[in-house]
């Protein structure tokens, strides 16, 4: 809002007054832009840090998944061996039962 001067101003005084106001406005805008630039740098730094942390966590997750997958492979192999062993034993029992049935016992 423009204040109304109570006294008459010369053109030179008006020019100085307007120049002073524009100078203050320019300094105020410069200060705001500087704050904005500092905030932008800070945010970029945080984003870069977050991206690096995400990369580290992704690599850690991959390593953990590989360990879990290897453990599962080992457990599945053990189960498959046990199933194979039981299947072989059941086949032997079935052969014995078939033999006994053929012999009439």
The low-pLDDT segments are: none
Form type? rod-shaped
Roughly what percent helix?
over 70%
Q: What radius of gyration results from the CA coordinates?
A: 43 Å
Distance between the termini: 117 Å
In total, how many beta strands? 0
Per DSSP, what share of the residues sits in E-state strands of 2 or more residues? Answer: under 5%
User: How do the helices and strands follow one another from N- to C-terminus?
Assistant: H
What are the key terms here?
105 residues; mainly alpha
Provide structural commentary.
This protein is mainly alpha-helical and 105 residues long. It is 89% helix and 0% strand. It has 1 helix and no strands. It has one helix at 11-103.
What would you say about this model in short?
By secondary structure, the protein is an all-alpha fold. 89% of the residues lie in helices and 0% in strands. The longest helix has 93 residues, at 11-103.
Q: What is the element layout, followed by pairings?
A:
Blueprint: H1 11-103
């Amino acid at each position: 809002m423009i204040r109304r001067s109570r006294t008459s101003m010369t053109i030179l005084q008006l020019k100085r007054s307007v120049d002073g106001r524009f100078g203050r406005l320019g300094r105020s805008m410069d200060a705001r832009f500087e704050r904005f630039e500092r905030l932008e740098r800070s945010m970029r730094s945080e984003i870069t840090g977050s991206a690096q942390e995400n990369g580290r966590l992704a690599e850690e997750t991959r390593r953990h998944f590989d360990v879990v997958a290897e453990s599962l492979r080992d457990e599945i192999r053990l189960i498959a061996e046990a199933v194979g062993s039981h299947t072989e034993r059941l086949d032997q029992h079935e052969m014995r039962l078939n033999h006994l049935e053929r012999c009439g016992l």
